[in-house]
Records
---
Amino acid sequence: MARFATASFARWGPRLALLGALGGCVEPYAPEIIDAPNSFLVVDGFINGNGRTRIQLTRTLNVAATTAPPVEKGAKLFILDDAGTRYPLTEKTAGAYQSDSLLLSPARQYQLRITTTAGNAVYESARVALKATPPIDQLGWRVQDEQVRLLLSTHDPAQATRYYRWGVAETWEFNAAFQSYLEYDRVKDDIVDRTTPIYTCWHTNRLSAIKQGSSAQLSQDALADVELLHFPRQDERFKIRYSLLVSQYAETAEEFAYYELLRKNTEAVGTVNDPLPVQLTGNVRRVDNAQEPVLGYVGAHTVQQKRIFITRAELPFVDFYQYDTPYKNCVVDTLKGAANDPNVVPISRTRNPDGILAGSRNCVDCRQRGSNVKPSFW
């Protein structure tokens, strides 16, 4: 039987609240690594064999902390192969590091080396072979039980992959509740004809869920109709146009097992039937102190991608008013307050020359929920 797994793990490294069941009693449980006051390194990312490697460095927080996880700034990172060649990463934003676009040799093995600014500590990931990821055969969808189900099929004719992980990014076009033809001009301190479009926007959502599949128990290295996502067909995503981009990664058995443990830990909700949380052991260590806990698993693989689009006309008919949007309670009213109120957007003039119809910014300005810049792939 093929194995599929998904789990939400937003901010999984820096703060991981886990619950366990012991002796019939449900009590909060936090592994020492997370519950301790120490600040341990969290390494999020992988070595990309056919593109840019992106690594995010943060520090752990106590499970009870309410602040954002601290990022690890100013570190020196590079990829090192078994021939001694180095490929540097540069810090693009605080704690986020990126390499140039690389085409790495599949004949070499690779590891990530990190030198932190504080304490000049050196961390290394285990040296691993570069896994070649097979292409995605098909990315599609079907409507079943009033749900739009996004499906993926893939296979490796060389029978050499067996373990797969997927990254998912979705984008959809949407309109605000009302189209505004007017805007407030601060220089003129007056309402003028609109020049900045705020009616149509695009929202992009990069899922932080662990999505994996394995053909290890199958005779063929193939997975068919793996369900990545599903949404009600009246979801706002499908009101105009929807796009799904899937990135596929070939994993080793060890990397797959690491993410399975991570999935199980982050799924725990504290019921008596929950599995006990397991402390994660990745493949990153501190060179001069192997006992220091480090969170993260740095694999090395090429990436295969595929994108699809779904337009409203392709789906079973749904009336515009039936779509589930956050604008159902939006109303238009005559502008009564100051024209420069940042929470109100003028929409149009009434028959009364001095009358202005207006609505709340959340209802009229689509930029509150997305970008008014059309994506390059649209």
---
Amino acid sequence: MPAIEIEGKKIELTDDGYLAKYDDWNEKVACAIADREGVSKTCPLTQEKMEIIKFMRDYYKKFSAFPIPRYVCKNLHQPKECTYEEFPDPIAAWKIAGLPDLEPEVYAFISKLKIK
């Protein structure tokens, strides 16, 4: 199983790059996954990125679902395309948020949302 190392601690990922254990997530883990996904080489992540990531985690905790990207922006009082500006690949944002692997039908829908 793939892993990332944060401050000497091994954090396991699934074969597809999702965090294996929801509770292993923190901002440093988010940075490491963002680097792995090619989203950001800097840590900490920008405030805008972290607001989106934290909203996604809160939304998932309440609804066990992927939020509609424009809904995220509206609730964060950011421009309506904020998720696409910060994360051209919504699946990468999901991984950075430390959320579980997506169901195939959700993955297919979200894959269509990627900025080409």
---
Amino acid sequence: MQDPTILILASLADGDKHGYAIMEDIQVFAGIRLGPGTLYGAICRLEQRGWIRAVKFEARRQPYRITAEGSQHLKEQLALLGHVVRTGNRRMREA
């Protein structure tokens, strides 16, 4: 997976997290280790798009929250991925 957008949004779907917690969560649920540069670059882009926002700073860590627009985008992307997976599985069975 080239673009970490869906991974970050999925991580934030169950609650606010700071960067390190997002990295750890993605490692657990996707088996993908994002480097800090990749993560924080993506966080910046997601904030610019309005899909996540920074919330109250706590103990030297900046937590982030998914927005309504981010949740909608995540739902759309998950639906698309579901379709791709179903199509791929069907085609593999037919091959």
